[in-house]
Amino acid sequence: MALIICNNCHRKLEHHAKGLCLTCYKKLVWKYKLFKCKRCERMLPMKAKGLCSRCYTSVFHSEAIKLANIIHWYHIDFEKYKNLTKKCILCDFDNIVELHHIDRNKNNISENNLVGLCPNHHRMIHHRKFQDEILLLLKENGYSAKPFFKPDSDFK
Fold it and tell me: Does residue 126 share a domain with residue 60?
């Protein structure tokens, strides 16, 4: 193909259409066809299989993304994470279980430092008002945990 000077960016590049290089053509002229996504039913450009890019990623790549996040944030393998988060060790809730570091050190990934807690208990252990109650339950289950906060009498 012949090289031309782009009417928009004025660089000497390969001609695409309307006197523009490919980059400028895509920015200024090209309009994606909009389709109704089969999953979210919004009018967006189609990625593949009748889905928009967000739904496609959610459906076909969510496990890979979850695995990468677990390795990045917790530095443990996926099987160990799945075993620790099967159910909350305090209430046996098993729908949503989060990983908690007992000693608050995210680099300590030993088995006795990691526990699975449901969102309620995980939030409670990080809240000053409910922390003693949750720490007591953890001790009853065989885990040694220290309070995060000093008692109120220490604060003046």
Answer: no
Quick one: tokens of 16?
């695409």
**Lowest-pLDDT range, 4-8, 63-67, 86-90, 144-148?**
144-148
d(CA 108, CA 114): 8
Owning domain of residue 86: 76-150
pTM: 0.59
Q: Which token pair is 32? A: 């994606």
The CA distances from residue 146 to 108, 132, 143, 149, 155, in Å, are: 15, 9, 10, 9, 18
pLDDT score of 156 more than 70: no
**Residue 38 corresponds to which amino acid?**
K
CA 141 to chain CA centroid, Å, is: 30
On whether residue 83 sits in a domain, the answer given is yes
d(CA 56, CA 47): 7
